[in-house]
Batch of 3 targets.
Target 1
Amino acid sequence: MEPRRDTFPRLLLHHADVRGAHPSVREKDLGIWQTWTWGDVAAEVRALACGLAAQGFRRGMHLAIIGDNRPRLYWTMAAVQALGGVPVPLYQDAVAEEMVYVLNDADVQFALVEDQEQVDKMLEIRERCPRLLHIVYDDPRGLRHYTQEFLHSYDEIQALGRAHHDAHPDFFPSAVAEAQPDDVAVMIYTSGTTGKPKGVCLTHDALIAAARGGVQFDRLTPDEDVLSYLPMAWIGDHLFSYCEALVAGFTINCPESGDTVMTDLREIGPTFYFAPPRVFENLLTQVTIRMEDAGALKRLAFRYFMNVARRCGAEILDGKGGVSLADRVLYGLGKILIYGPLRNVLGMSRIRVAYTAGAAIGPDLFRFYRSIGINMKQLYGATETCAYVCLQPDGDIKLDSVGKPAPGVEVKIADSGEVLVRSPAMLKEYYKRPDATAESIDGEGYFHTGDAGIFDPDGHLKIIDRAKDVGKLANGALFAPNYVENKLKFFSHIKEAVTFGHGREQVCAFINIDMSAVGNWAERRGIPYSGYTDLAGRVEVGDLIQECVEKVNAELAHDPVLCHSQVRRFLVLHKELDPDDDELTRTRKVRRGFIAEKYAVLTDALYGGREHQFIETQVKFEDGRVGAISADLRIRDARVFDPVAAAA
């Protein structure tokens, strides 16, 4: 009889049995890639699970995991699940104050953290987290003189576990056997864009259903390589780097640090890649900067062949007809001279499938990657649906859709325009929030996503925006702020944008410049600046951003639905929007309501017809200090265009 594979610990033991010598995890440490096989990982997880049990961890307890993507932190997930406990990953860049809420709300009793930085955060807030009993750390550097009794090294816990296993060899297999598919496998907190984060309880059943659906849909095999670098507290990383790896048996690769991701990406050459739109935006920005610094001949060749790619690259990738022989020949030449080397520089030369999700992606950005031969696809999902709702089938990609309902998923549009989802891959509940659970899942079992969307005639789902964010201008025309913001962010010089317009006569915007792209642009033109605030306030930079805004307006003029959402007035903010200042979530989603309230003086100036506005803003620095940034911001009028589609 085939062994059961209905929980993650049982999947782990299955891979250890059938492909024990196959690489399971790699990590770059001190410049050298270290490898652990599936057999190695099973032994590591067993030692940790037994050690945690010896330390008092019991079925039903919750353990927080905090740190960068590290093999030992992924193994902790499996060890906790093997004991019938619930791992609760937290964002590693969250300040200590933010962690207090989650640790208390989730009733966390154990915390396993990466290094001294995270240990210090735990020590700072421990007195306000009365349930927190034990803190375990992975990296011992800097912790030699930390002598608290509740503080333990990872190695110490594993040594305890090996002794426990020697004394009780049946303990670990029995614990794994006791786990049930409907047990909560992980608790992942929502980003909290509109209020306090909620703990989403996801079962083994739900996550494995999502992972199996994705693996079968894209024909993933044990030979795939994935770069695991996104926050472990994000459902996207959990699905792709943990769940699908345990279902398919492929290899995850952990970079040395956040600063070396691009180098490590090129060294690994993943076959399967996942990133939110902001990562793809940043990569495109880097390419743009490099090309601006290149010689005249190289710039000319790049622009020429990128025009060819935009014209026919996506169609050639999808195997569609209608591309002329001349274009196919030119594209083939471009592949040798430009696209191939560019994919290699990006670390994407081996990619079979690249996914993006987490926020809407601009069609222009999407087309860029597909046009150079990268099989980039969008998926649509939420934490509550295990990031599994819609997928884009190969050869049937639409740049402005998120694909068709994934296998086993039912999607319908409510009368209000909200997207509703029913599938096996859904949350069990919000932790300690039966009211929120009942509110989000209706009597028919449909989860209310909070997104507004429509189906096109071919059955592809188009997400317009968050339902709560979609509004109307004073003239009754539809206004979708996120859609406009994404078109603005396609430009390498714009890092973030926030648009306003609901109930107003016109659309106005705040713009954050991209410091690296605009700084490079300014240096090549001999424009001096002393920092972000100074650079953002330069007249030349305002002119540069105005060009980008007006190009977006020209494109919007051709959109029959959003042609009235052209940006009429804008300003370049004096500071970067920052999660530490509560302006963005930890997944870098704009907290539009908070920003509108915080910068009310600026929105009043935009809509009041003023040309300048002074503002002083309090900011938090990384070391905890508080300071202030002030500036006199110039407000600009942008050119708008007559609606072409509406007049047609």
Target 2
Amino acid sequence: MKLKFILISTLILLASGVFAQVKFEVKVSKNTLGINERLRVDFEMNQDGDNFQPPNFQGFRVVGGPNQSISNSWINGRSSYSKTFSYFLSPTARGKFTIGQATIQMDGETYKTVPITVEVTAAVDQPKDGDNTDYLVNENIHLVAEISKTNPYLNEAITVVYKLYVSPETAVSGWREIDNPKFADFWSQNTDNKQFQVHEGTYQGKPYRYAILRSTVLYPQKTGKLEIEPLSLDVQVEVRTNRRDIFGRPFMSRVNKTVSAGTRTIDVKPLPAQTMPANFSGAVGKFDFKVKASKTKLDARESLEILVEVTGNGNLKLFKPPRLITPNNLEVYEPEFQEKVTTTDKGMRGSISENYTIIPQFKGNYPIKPLTFTYFDVESETYKTISSDEIIIEVENGPVTRESSSISAANLTKQPVILAEDQFKYIKLKPELKAINSAPFFKSPLFWSLLTGPLVLIPLFILIGKKRREFESDVEGKRLKKANRLARKYLSEAKKNSHNQKQFYESLERALHNYLKAKLSIETSEFSKERIHKFLLERKVEPQVSENFIAILKNCEYARYTPTTDGAIKQDYDKAVLVISTIDKQIA
């Protein structure tokens, strides 16, 4: 009986040794964390091993570890063993990152952990670094985003100032930006901080020192509640501890800390729609407007320049001056656009202008109609309109028209002209004529050509007729080809400038406006995007196609001031070809 018991016990021990499995796995404290939080990673094994190799932790910085812990226990006659390597990580960027495979050797075999994915999001309002927090740092350093106005109008400038507050007991030796706000719904530009200075101030009622790290000017491009993403920094901090040396002086501890300004929300008000003038083009701020001619008296075929200029403070880079309208007898070249705008903490200021070169062809007086420019004044919250004076161009010498040497402002149609006497002097008045060959026509090469020619041409005419009938029956194909030719005609200038981002998007926007001007006989430069969208819908264009047209116009405005790629330029060109072709087929 005793021998039987010993045999059974031996078999049980052998079986437990055979079926015992080696476990080597990875565990994380959380699968999703903010960029200002910490992540704990544990590599656990149930047997001791050698040559432990951790992964490279791409996307993170190791701020603690490896910490090693070993546990042995004996419960109800069964023993258990556990060994853990722990790391504390701080994210360096947002995105999805993979904790790679760790390896260890046990009994001559190599074991690997399974990769695990962790997502790093924007900074959270109340970071919780449960396993490795430094409360002293949390209480002594703060990154704050101060917004000049939280309830602006559409296209009104606001300023975001990022300040780093540090208590007197703490010293900062350096920092780097690890997560920049994208400002997706804003036109944005950073203003230069020429001198980095430390100021004295208070934060939450306590004395602090602070430095202005960055100032950003924003122009909201949408209405409603918009979020301003947080700025996050990796700061090297020296903080006073409770430990002291033999002389009673406190020890300083250096740590790396991720601080964030937190997400801010603003509520953007729409511009008043009921009182909006028809010629409003989106200008918001305070502006002056003028139209000035370089000279008003000249001879025919001399040139003059007319400058249309808007100056002041506001969203100068987000609209264009009004287009100049001239009589048809004046030869007008495409205007040269000039932009002299600087951006400060209070927004854009400077001027934008279009300079027209004009060459009159005939003698007479030519009136240039007054132009009107409308903008929304934020201070008075009203629309204001400025009109220019009428300009009279006096052409003193040159050819004259038959009907009159003076063209009035009410009569701007084309006039018949008297041609100069030497206009056709290249035509010969005394031609040298030669007699026709008097050889017999019968059986001549011309005779046989005229006799056999129709027989040869009949099959060719049949083939051409067949192809023509096929072409005539393909109505949809003809409309598509015609629409594509029309689109490429208007977009040819943009395609030539595809190597230059700014010139490309200016040409693309001009092409879209010129297409609507030619197709619908309207001055689209005087319309807002909402009015263009409404006008297309009235002409039976599908809503999605009209929205695509407006989206391309918006891309032209944004892309002129933000970097883009050659692929994006080609994509915008192809979209423009498609939308013009589609509108041309659908328009009533």
Target 3
Amino acid sequence: MDIRQNMTVAEKLEILADAAKYDVACTSSGNDRAAVKGAMGSAAAAGICHAFSGDGRCISLLKILMTNQCVYDCKYCVNRRSNDIPRAAFTPEEICMLTMEFYKRNYIEGLFLSSGVILSPNHTMELMYEVLYLLRKKHHFMGYIHVKGIPGADPVLLEKTGFLADRMSVNLELPTKEGLALLAPAKKEENILGPMRHIQAGIHGNAHYGKSAYQTTRIRMGQTEDVNVLWQNAVPKEMPAKKPDRTAEGSGTREGPPFLTGSPAGSLSSAAGKTLWLPGRMHEEDRNWMANGKLSDYVPAGQSTQMIIGASKETDYQIIRKAELLYRSYDLKRVFYSAFINTTHDSMLPELPGGPPLIREHRLYQADFLMRYYGFYAGEILSPSFPDLDPQMDPKCTWALRHMERFPVEVMKADYGTLLRVPGIGPKAAERIVRARRTDHLSFDALKRMGVVLKRAHYFILCCGKQMFRLKIEAGFIARELLAMDREKNWKAAHQAQYSQMDLFTDFGLAAGKYR
């Protein structure tokens, strides 16, 4: 279906904001940047995450697609080429206008920009780079920007974009090559992992480089072999030896594609017969401006990715093994898991009569946190003989019940890594326990004040040789007690589909015809 012509910005926004809602972006900005005189906006590491919609998705970003037109026909995607839906496209200038106007009104804290693949990966990545370049240079916007890297795009375009973005992500989409081959045959896993490797190399080559949660936890627990793998994999970026001109005429300007410049629908030749901007090394004036504008760090908030859960037949074990590989080999800050929503009803996709697998998504996030913050390996959480997470119980409790020979743990003597294995004790509480017991004997009341969730932990710990209550340390009894405790929470997690995502027009009262 062709892109509709003569649409207002408001009409485009309705289509492209709705099309972007399946991309997960619930994360903190991860980057501190103070305001700059003469510019607008700033970024705080703890920002972005404070506003969520009813279905758990972050709405404090202007989350849009540049276009929902796409050359690919992925079975699971609502924007697939063969899907009969309204198509629209923003110009770079329109996205800049929306971002600046919404930011001034305090509707948003930053921009999340993704896109369908229009014409080619390079062409699409070039357009997205232009949006960021205009925001940073012309509009002097210093707020948070998260941009999607397009698989198959030239590494030079990824580099140029990375110097303007706070965070970049390349969606893995499906956890295995087999899943991609079945549902997205035009996409290859190596074309997705290649941009991840280039972004990783750029981050590691940057002086502002900061360790991910996965790395920090491994260093704290002495598991340095994982950190060594990351540095060995951070190969230097390959760049062309010669810097091409921006245009054939050498004027330093660029002509947009026809759907951005008013050419007839269906025509994809460049406007006025001019050659589109060739990808190449950043011009010297661009580098100077970015250094002066304090944007010389490359992807300072790190990179992330997203996997769709439930569209193909992978087990939870395969999924978390893939996530572990990405953390170890590509130094990702986050792997997001998105419960599959069947919007296309293709015969090759599961029907999901019970709705999106939200409780499975929830359990995968919990397992992911165990790998990033608690020092667990994927093979400890699941195995080929236990390939799926328990929908009724969180994975940390499940692991503990399978290893009752390690419990109860004496909190006055256990090391930091052992304390992290106790259900109800998190990283901060474990650190407080280790510090406090150097100078004093602990009590259960003291543990509660330190942040220990005693309603879980008391089954698995001793404090100065005593239990909180006289209980039999037996897996079946503890499992029944924990399941009764979590019944209401599990029901709420499984029924999130009854909520709807917040909408800029409905929830914020924006006039539909305001931006024309």
